[in-house]
Design a protein that fits this description.
By secondary structure, this protein is α+β, with helices and mostly antiparallel strands. The protein has one domain (about 25-155). It has helices spanning about 1-20, 35-40, 55-60, 100-120, 125-130, 150-155, and strands spanning about 50-55, 75-80, 90-95, 135-140, 140-145. It has a 5-stranded antiparallel sheet with strand order 1-2-3-5-4, sandwiched between helices. β4 and β5 form a beta hairpin. α2 packs antiparallel against α6 (about 150-155). About 30% of the residues are buried.
Length: about 160
C-alpha cells in the first residue's frame, strides 16, 4: 500500500510539472513587453526600416478572425512591418487571455506559411528569414519576428 501511494504521489508530481510546460510558451509564462519589442527593433536585427501598423490592420493582415478570435480579443500591440522591400516584421500582439494568444499562434503560423509560398518565386532571398521566424506565445502575448538575425532575436526574447 505504501509503495502504491509513493507511485501515485510521483505520478501527480509529474503531471503537475507537465501542466506548466505549454507548447509555445515563452518559459515562465511572463508576457512579452513592448519594451522587449522596442529592444528587438533597435537591436540591428533588421536590414530594412519598419513602418508602424495599427491593431486593426494587424487583425486583418494576420487572419485572426479566421482563427476564431473576436476583434476585442486583441487588446493591444506593437507592430512594425517592412514597406515591401523585405519580408521583415515584428509583431507583439496582446490578447485578453492566454487561450486567445495560443489561438493566434496558429493564425500566425498560417500567415508565415502563406508568406513563404508567395515569396518563393517573388523574393526567394527572403524565404530563409520567413522559415527562421521567431514565433512564440507567452502569457497573454504573442511575439512574431521575421528578421535578418534570428539568433539575436532569440537572445533578446528569451
Amino acid at each position: 500500500m505504501k509503495k502504491r501511494l509513493i507511485c501515485l504521489a510521483a505520478a501527480a508530481a509529474c503531471l503537475a510539472l507537465l501542466a506548466g510546460c505549454g507548447a509555445g510558451d515563452g518559459g515562465d509564462g511572463a508576457a512579452y513587453t513592448q519594451e522587449q519589442a522596442q529592444e528587438i527593433l533597435d537591436s540591428g536585427a533588421f536590414t530594412d526600416d519598419l513602418e508602424e501598423l495599427d491593431c486593426d490592420t494587424a487583425w486583418a493582415l494576420y487572419g485572426l478572425e479566421d482563427a476564431g478570435l473576436e476583434r476585442e480579443d486583441l487588446t493591444g500591440g506593437f507592430i512594425r512591418r517592412s514597406a515591401g522591400a523585405t519580408c521583415e516584421e515584428l509583431a507583439l500582439l496582446e490578447f485578453s487571455g492566454s487561450d486567445e494568444a495560443q489561438t493566434a499562434v496558429g493564425a500566425l503560423e498560417t500567415y508565415l506559411q502563406d508568406q513563404i509560398d508567395s515569396n518563393r518565386d517573388y523574393r526567394p532571398n527572403e524565404v530563409p528569414k520567413l522559415e527562421d521566424a521567431f514565433l512564440q506565445a507567452s502569457g497573454e502575448t504573442v511575439l512574431m519576428v521575421v528578421s535578418n538575425d534570428a539568433q539575436l532575436v532569440e537572445d533578446i526574447a528569451g
